[in-house]
Amino acid sequence: MPLTFELCPDRMIGGSHPCYIIAEIGQNHQGDIEIAKKMIKMAKDCGADCAKFQKCELEYKFNKKALERSYTSKHSWGKTYGEHKRHLEFSHDQYKELQKYAKEVGIHFTASGTDEVAVEFLHTLNVPFFKVASTDANNFPYLEKTAQKGRPMVVSSGMQSMEAMRRVYQTVKKYNQNFAILQCTSAYPLEAEDVNLRVITEYLKEFPDIPIGYSGHESGISISVAAVALGAKIVERHVTLDKTWKGNDHEASLLPTELAELVRSIRLVERALGSGIKTMLPCEKPCHDKLGKSVVAKVKIPKGTALTLDMLTVKVAEPMGVAAEDIFQLVGLSVLEDVGEDESVTPEVVDNYGKRVKS
Fold first, then answer.
1. Strands 153-156 and 179-184
2. b or e along 299-316 (b: 16 or more beta carbons within 10 Å of the residue's beta carbon)?
3. DSSP assignment letter at 251
4. What average pLDDT is seen over the chain?
5. How confident is the model at residue 248 (pLDDT cuts 50, 70, 90)?
6. Which residue among 269, 300, 315, 349 is buried most deeply as judged by most CB within 10 Å?
7. Confidence (pLDDT) at 356
8. How far apart are CA 159 and CA 135, in angstroms?
9. Residue from 124, 123, 56 nearest 89 by CA
């Protein structure tokens, strides 16, 4: 399996490719398609790669009693849970309208299909990838059917164990090579103590041949940025236009200013991660030329003298002498000319210095 793959047309993820940032609109649109469009545009303006929604066919996701149960929460849009969910659910035609708008704006568009019928609809909609919500991570018939459709998949792992995620990996891998797993804790808002970012590191060891990411529900952006520093190649965060709106997700969502700062910070961290190769960089040369230390004679050393360590010291010197780290290489070598006390011991005055360093 590849560590990198094309998640969306002309957009690779994994490896050295930039982190893919998903703005999870979910159902924070209040059931209003015009608000949904504003949020798509906001996601694009803030620099996100994808605007994502949540699609379900209610009778296939919930049983009758679940839909009929009383729902008296301050976040409710109806007397029953079914009425509440119907208010927030866009029709197929509305999804097509939103997809068209996202294309006009220039941002990728997808959704979590939270039941098999919803996945079928999203497949006909030709979304670039399927997002699997944490609630379906252990729904193995669903995972098999979704994986068999051949589209890339991004699987969240809230409420799951490592053993369950090993099963998820094996189940999806059997049918689909192009998928990623996201560390996630399903709490809204999420406290820092429950984030468990170290799972990203464990996932990277457990599943080294797929990209690993992070789906966060915490307040602020710092933890999500840290996830990228740990190796997350996808970051998903809920977004909102107003944290006081109805809905459990708004409090754990990012405002436009926060989303823009998240994108900026992730891109900054990506630049800072570097190659992992430790060497003196060109930007360090001015400091090295000014303050880099080298070997200096502690005492006057006559021509022909075999050097001993007690004759030498390390200082900031002009001109720069033998590199400080090579001082032990000089012991036993002879000087080809007199070297005054506190003068630089340059490579040219030490017999066979170059040969010993190379060997």
1. parallel
2. eebeeeeebeeebbbbee
3. G
4. 96
5. confident
6. 349
7. 66
8. 8
9. 56
pLDDT exceeds cutoff 70 at 336: yes
The C-alpha atoms of residue 277 and residue 62 are separated, in whole angstroms, by: 52
Residue 43 phi, psi (nearest 5): -60, -45
Judge contact between 14 and 211, C-beta under 8 A: yes
The SS3 of residue 321 is coil
Provide the pairing of β-strand 179-184 with 20-26: unpaired
Cα–Cα distance for residue pair 297/12, rounded to 1 Å? 57
Residues 274-305 pLDDT 10s: 999 999 999 999 999 999 999 999 999 999 99
Q: Which structure tokens are listed for 275?
A: 């190659």
Where helices occur in the chain by DSSP H, the ranges are: 33-45, 58-61, 64-68, 81-88, 92-105, 116-124, 140-147, 162-175, 198-206, 222-229, 256-273, 285-291, 353-358
Q: Could you tell me if 307 and 334 are in contact, meaning their C-beta atoms sit under 8 angstroms apart?
A: yes
Neighbours of 81 (CB within 10 A): 20
Q: From CA 312, how far away is CA 50, in angstroms rounded?
A: 62
- The rounded distance, in Å, linking the Cα atoms of 158 and 181 is 11
Pairing of strands 20-26, 108-113: unpaired
Rounded distance between C-alpha atoms, residue 316 and residue 293, angstroms = 4
**Contact in structure between 313 and 267 (CB atoms under 8 Å):** no
Q: Are 62 and 77 in contact (CB under 8 A)?
A: no
CB atoms within 10 A of CB 158: 17
What three-state secondary structure class fits 315? strand
Q: Which amino acid is at 80?
A: T
Q: Please answer whether residues 223 and 254 qualify as being in contact, where contact means their C-beta atoms are separated by less than 8 angstroms.
A: no
Distance CA 338, CA 353 (A): 16
At 188, is the secondary structure helix, strand, or coil? coil
Which residues have CB under 8 Å from 129's CB, separation 6+? 7, 8, 110, 151, 152, 153, 154
Kindly tell me if the per-residue pLDDT of 1 is higher than 50: no
The whole-model pTM stands at: 0.92
